[in-house]
Write a sequence for this structure.
C-alpha cells in the first residue's frame, strides 16, 4: 500500500469525516488519494490560515479532532498562527504538512521549510516522518496525543517520497508512547483535602476555566454547584461551564469581567479553580489576586498548576473525573450570607451599554440571546469579542468559539465556517469588528461555495477599537494607526472625527454581494430584527449584517494593567 | 527563595530534533542553562542528557513540569539532592612551550592528577576529568602560569546516580 493510501486509511480509522485542505506540490499525492474516497469531505478554504481556523472551529464546536492538510513551505508556514491559537486554547488538531523528499531536506529545496523546528514551541507535538514503516504508527500517535490529556495541535510532516513509498497496510489499534502517559486517575486524598477546606470556608467560590468545557464536565459541574450552593465565576474560556443565566453564576472575571465576579474573587476565602491557567488577563495585579483565599486547583496539565499563582491544594486530573469524585465527598456549603452578598453585587452592578444611544453591540447580542435557540457563536478579537463575552448567554460547551489565549484577529469568520460544517443544523453566528473581518475576508468564497447559512455580524466603528480604547484612556487620545477611515489626504492628528471622515472602505455589503453572499447594513436599534429576519430568509449563502456603531464606544468595566481586580473603571 | 545550582538527568527519544526541542523549550521559557550534555545510552533509541542550571525552587519546579509534559521526554530525574558521580572533561592546550614550560606542565599534571595526552616541540595537551569547580580552578591556574598561551575546551558535565558512595 502506498504511503498516501495508508494516510487516507488512518484518517478513516480515526473517524475523520471532514478535512480542511489546500493542495500544493508536496501534498498533491495525498489529495490524489483522497479523490477516490467518499467517507471524508475535503473542504477547500481560500487561505491556509483560514483553513486551520476553520478546522479549529470545527473541533471546538464538535469536540472532534480537526484535521488540516497542506503543502510544504508557505502552505505549512501559513498554519503557524492557527497552530499557536489552537495550542493556547487546547484545541485538538492534526496538521499534516507535505515536505520535500527526504533526500532534498536540508538543501533549501523549493518550498522547503523546517516546519517541525518552526512549530516546536507552539504545538503539543511535532514530528517528521522519516521512514514509510513508521508512518502509520506516527499518525496513530498524532491523533492520540491531539485528543487526550490537555488537548492540542500536533504537526505531522510527511516527505513526498514517503507518501509515495510502498509499505504495510496495517494501521495500529493500540498506542503506547513511553514519553506520554496522560493522567486518567484522580488523587482521592487531595479531593478529600479540598472538601475539608471547602467545608470550613465562609466565602467559597468556584472559578471555572476552559478545562471544564473541554472535558465536557458541564453537567456534573452544574450538579456540583447546585448541590454545594457555591457561587461560580468563569474565565472567558470557561464561559458556559454552567448556564450563564443560572442564579449562582456571577460572570467572567478579568480585566473586562463583571463587578460581582472580580469582587468575589478578591474577597473569597477559598477559591476552587478548575481548568484555568491563571493567565494575566484574569489575575490583574498578581500579588493581590485572591489575596485572602486558600486556592485549590484542578488541571489536566501539571505545568499549569502553580505556574502563575501558587496554589495550596493541587490536583492533577481531568476536570470531569475530578468533579465526579468531588461529588462523592463534598457537602453543601453553609455560606448563605456570602451567597446573598455576591448575589446582591450582581444585581446592583449589571454590565450594560446604556450610556450609548441607538444601535449598540449589547442590543445586538441580547437580540441573539432572546431570539436564537442554542446558537454557536464565534468571535474575532478585540472589542467585538469582549462585548460578546460580556453579553452572550450560553447554556453549555461547544457553543462559544473565541481565541482566548493568543488573541488572533481573523479567527472568527473561518472558525464559524468550520463550526457550521460540523453543525449543519445549528445557527452559527460570527461576531467580528471591521478590522478583524478584513483579515480573512476571502473566506466568503468558501462559505458561499459550501452554501453555508452563516450570519456574520460586523460591528463597524471604523477603528481598531480595542487599541483605540487604550489610546483614549492611556495615551491621551493619540490614535496612532487605529483609524480605518484614514486616507493619505487626512490630517494626521485630525480632531473632527466623525464629521468629515472619508467613506469607509470596503463597502462590506457590496463586498458580500460580489461573492454572491447577502449583505445588509443597519444603523438603528429598530433595524436589528429586520436584519436577522433577512439573514434567516437566505439559507443558501451567508448573510453579513454590518452594524454601524458609535465610533468611540468602549468596553467597560475595565481593570487597567497593573491594578487589582476590584479596582475597576465601571463607567456603566 | 533560594537560588542554587541544579542538576537533572533526562532520558529522551534518540531522534533528530530532540536536542533542539529541549533547548528550545528551555530558552523559550527564558530558563538559562549552565551546561547541557547529551549522548546515546545502552539503548540506542534513547539518549540521556545531563543539564545543569541555576535557579530558584519555583522556576525549577516549572522546568521539571515543562520537560515532563514533552512527548519526547521519557523520564526526568532530579539529581540536585541525591548522591551522584558528576564529572566534566576538560582539555587544555599550552602553546609556545619551552622545555621549562613543559617541565612545569608535567609537574602540575603530577600534583593535580592530570593526563598529558599529546605534545610536540611547542605544544602540550592536558586532559582533565574533574568536577566543574575543580576544572575552573585548573583553568585559572594554567591561565596564570602560561599567560595568553592557553586554549581551553570543556565538555559540560555528565552525571550518574551513585551506588555505594554518599558524596556529592
Amino acid at each position: 500500500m502506498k504511503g498516501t493510501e495508508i494516510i487516507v486509511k488512518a484518517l478513516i480509522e480515526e473517524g475523520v469525516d471532514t478535512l480542511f485542505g489546500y493542495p500544493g506540490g508536496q501534498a498533491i499525492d495525498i489529495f490524489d488519494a483522497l479523490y477516490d474516497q467518499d467517507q471524508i469531505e475535503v473542504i477547500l478554504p481560500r487561505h491556509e490560515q483560514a483553513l486551520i481556523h476553520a478546522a479549529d472551529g470545527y473541533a471546538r464546536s464538535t469536540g472532534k479532532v480537526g484535521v488540516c492538510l497542506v503543502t510544504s513551505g508557505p502552505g505549512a508556514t501559513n498554519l503557524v498562527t492557527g497552530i499557536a491559537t489552537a495550542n493556547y486554547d487546547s484545541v485538538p488538531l492534526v496538521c499534516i504538512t507535505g515536505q520535500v523528499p527526504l533526500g532534498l531536506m536540508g538543501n533549501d529545496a523549493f518550498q522547503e521549510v523546517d516546519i517541525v523546528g518552526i512549530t516546536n514551541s507552539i504545538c503539543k507535538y511535532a514530528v517528521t516522518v522519516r521512514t514509510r514503516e513508521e508512518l502509520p504508527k506516527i499518525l496513530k500517535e498524532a491523533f492520540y496525543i491531539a485528543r487526550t490529556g490537555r488537548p492540542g495541535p500536533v504537526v505531522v510532516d510527511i516527505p513526498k517520497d514517503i507518501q509515495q513509498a510502498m509499505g504495510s497496510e496495517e494501521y495500529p489499534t493500540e498506542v503506547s508512547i513511553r514519553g506520554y502517559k496522560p493522567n486518567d486517575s484522580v488523587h482521592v486524598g487531595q479531593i478529600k483535602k479540598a472538601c475539608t477546606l471547602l467545608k470550613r470556608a465562609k466565602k467559597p467560590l468556584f472559578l471555572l476555566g476552559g478545562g471544564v468545557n473541554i472535558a465536557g464536565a458541564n453537567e456534573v459541574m452544574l450538579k456540583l454547584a447546585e448541590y454545594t450552593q457555591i457561587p461560580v465565576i468563569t474565565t472567558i474560556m470557561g464561559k458556559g461551564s454552567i448556564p450563564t443565566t443560572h442564579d449562582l453564576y456571577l460572570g467572567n472575571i478579568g480585566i473586562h469581567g463583571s463587578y460581582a465576579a472580580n469582587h468575589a474573587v478578591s474577597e473569597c476565602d477559598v477559591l476552587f479553580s478548575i481548568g484555568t491557567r491563571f493567565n494575566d488577563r484574569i489575575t490583574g495585579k498578581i500579588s493581590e489576586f485572591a489575596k485572602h483565599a486558600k486556592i485549590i486547583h484542578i488541571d489536566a496539565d501539571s505545568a499549569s498548576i502553580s505556574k502563575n499563582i501558587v496554589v495550596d491544594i493541587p490536583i492533577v486530573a481531568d476536570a470531569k473525573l475530578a468533579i465526579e469524585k468531588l461529588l462523592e465527598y463534598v457537602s453543601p456549603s453553609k455560606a448563605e450570607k456570602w451567597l446573598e452578598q455576591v448575589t446582591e453585587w450582581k444585581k446592583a452592578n449589571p454590565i450594560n451599554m446604556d450610556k450609548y444611544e441607538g444601535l449598540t453591540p449589547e442590543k445586538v447580542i441580547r437580540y441573539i440571546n432572546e431570539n436564537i435557540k442554542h446558537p454557536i457563536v464565534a468571535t474575532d478579537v478585540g472589542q467585538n469579542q469582549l462585548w460578546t463575552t460580556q453579553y452572550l448567554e450560553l447554556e453549555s460547551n461547544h457553543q462559544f468559539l473565541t481565541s482566548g489565549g493568543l488573541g488572533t484577529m481573523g479567527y472568527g469568520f473561518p472558525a464559524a465556517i468550520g463550526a457550521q460544517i460540523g453543525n449543519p443544523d445549528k445557527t452559527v453566528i460570527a461576531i467580528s469588528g471591521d478590522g478583524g473581518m478584513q483579515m480573512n475576508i476571502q473566506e466568503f468564497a468558501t462559505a458561499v461555495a459550501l452554501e453555508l447559512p452563516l450570519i456574520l455580524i460586523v460591528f463597524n466603528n471604523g477603528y481598531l477599537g480595542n487599541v483605540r480604547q487604550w489610546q483614549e484612556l492611556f495615551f491621551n487620545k493619540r490614535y496612532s494607526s487605529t483609524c480605518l477611515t484614514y486616507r493619505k489626504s487626512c490630517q494626521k492628528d485630525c480632531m473632527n472625527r466623525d464629521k468629515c471622515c472619508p467613506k469607509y472602505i470596503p463597502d462590506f455589503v457590496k463586498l458580500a454581494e460580489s461573492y454572491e453572499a447577502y449583505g445588509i447594513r443597519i444603523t438603528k436599534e429598530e433595524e436589528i430584527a429586520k436584519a436577522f429576519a433577512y439573514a434567516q430568509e437566505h439559507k443558501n449563502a451567508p448573510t453579513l449584517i454590518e452594524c454601524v456603531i458609535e465610533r468611540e464606544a468602549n468596553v467597560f468595566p475595565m481593570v487597567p494593567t497593573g491594578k487589582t481586580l476590584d479596582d475597576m473603571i465601571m463607567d456603566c | 527563595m533560594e537560588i542554587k545550582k541544579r542538576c537533572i538527568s533526562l532520558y529522551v527519544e534518540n531522534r533528530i530534533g530532540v536536542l533542539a526541542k529541549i533547548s528550545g523549550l528551555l530558552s523559550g521559557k527564558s530558563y538559562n542553562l549552565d551546561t547541557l550534555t547529551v549522548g546515546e545510552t545502552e539503548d540506542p533509541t534513547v539518549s540521556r542528557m545531563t543539564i545543569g542550571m541555576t535557579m530558584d525552587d519555583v522556576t525549577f519546579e516549572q522546568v521539571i513540569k515543562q520537560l515532563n509534559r514533552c512527548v519526547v521526554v521519557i523520564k526526568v530525574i532530579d539529581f540536585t539532592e541525591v548522591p551522584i558521580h558528576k564529572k566534566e572533561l576538560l582539555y587544555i592546550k599550552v602553546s609556545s612551550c619551552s622545555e621549562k614550560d613543559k617541565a612545569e606542565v608535567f609537574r602540575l599534571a603530577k600534583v593535580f592528577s592530570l593526563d598529558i595526552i599529546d605534545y610536540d616541540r611547542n605544544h602540550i595537551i592536558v586532559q582533565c576529568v574533574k568536577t566543574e569547580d575543580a576544572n575552573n580552578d585548573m583553568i585559572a591556574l594554567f591561565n596564570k602560569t602560561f599567560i595568553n598561551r592557553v586554549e581551553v575546551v570543556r565538555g559540560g558535565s555528565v552525571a550518574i546516580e551513585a551506588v555505594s558512595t554518599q558524596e556529592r
Remarks:
- Chain A has a mean pLDDT of 96.
- Chain A touches chain B through 20 residues (CB under 8 Å).
- The longest helix of chain A spans residues 48-62.
